[in-house]
């Protein structure tokens, strides 16, 4: 398969005996991604083997989604997929509004301060609550946690993979 796949969740466990799987979402759009009839892929994290699947049913339970996939009606059909990733094909992703970005657009971007200093590269996105936090891996020293708020994030250029930020006192 040549089309780019993007992670939308991780299969962490089975649920019950009817083939349902517990998914930890890794997307800003879980309701959209996991709705019935959504076309997704199970992907092995090491071999990258991808199996196309279609969501049959979905419900939020605490902080995980419980999904049932068409053609998988029994715990024995799905148990082997624990630890696999849930992916979406690029062609299934919708266009975003002007100030919206996919995680894959942000991760890997170079971060530069408004004073011209290179901070490092974004390697992870956390979603602890009110706003996302971008984790910047520095060339030397500890990671920097940047809150995604207007006072900090000044400009995002996903084409050039450069993000300009204002480092508020106490952030570094």
Describe, in plain words, how this protein is organized in 3D.
The chain is mainly β and 172 residues long. It has helices spanning 30-33, 75-78, 103-106; strands at 5-15, 20-25, 39-43, 50-61, 64-69, 85-89, 110-113, 118-126, 133-137, 144-147, 153-157, 162-165. The N and C termini lie far apart (42 Å).
Short structural summary:
With 172 residues, the protein is mainly β.
Essential attributes:
mainly beta, elongated, 172 residues, six-stranded antiparallel β-barrel, 7% helix
Set down the secondary structure blueprint.
Elements: E1 5-15, E2 20-25, H1 30-33, E3 39-43, E4 50-61, E5 64-69, H2 75-78, E6 85-89, H3 103-106, E7 110-113, E8 118-126, E9 133-137, E10 144-147, E11 153-157, E12 162-165
Parallel strand pairs: 7-12
Antiparallel strand pairs: 1-2, 1-6, 2-5, 3-4, 3-6, 4-5, 7-8, 8-9, 9-10, 11-12
């Amino acid at each position: 398969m040549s089309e780019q796949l993007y992670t939308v969740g991780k299969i962490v466990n089975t649920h019950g005996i009817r083939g349902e799987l517990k998914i930890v979402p890794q997307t800003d759009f879980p309701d959209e991604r996991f709705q019935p009839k959504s076309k997704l892929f199970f992907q092995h994290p090491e071999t990258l083997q991808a199996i196309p699947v279609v969501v049959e049913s979905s419900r939020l339970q605490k902080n995980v989604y419980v999904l049932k996939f068409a053609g998988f009606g029994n715990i024995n059909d799905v148990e082997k997929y624990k630890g696999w990733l849930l992916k979406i094909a690029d062609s299934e992703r919708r266009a975003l509004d002007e100030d919206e970005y996919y995680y894959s657009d942000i991760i890997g971007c170079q971060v530069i301060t408004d004073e011209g200093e290179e901070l490092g590269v974004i390697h992870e996105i956390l979603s602890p609550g009110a706003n996302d936090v971008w984790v910047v891996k520095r060339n030397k020293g500890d990671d920097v946690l940047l809150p995604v708020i207007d006072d900090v994030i000044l400009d995002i250029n996903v084409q050039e993979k450069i993000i300009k930020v204002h480092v508020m006192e106490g952030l570094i």
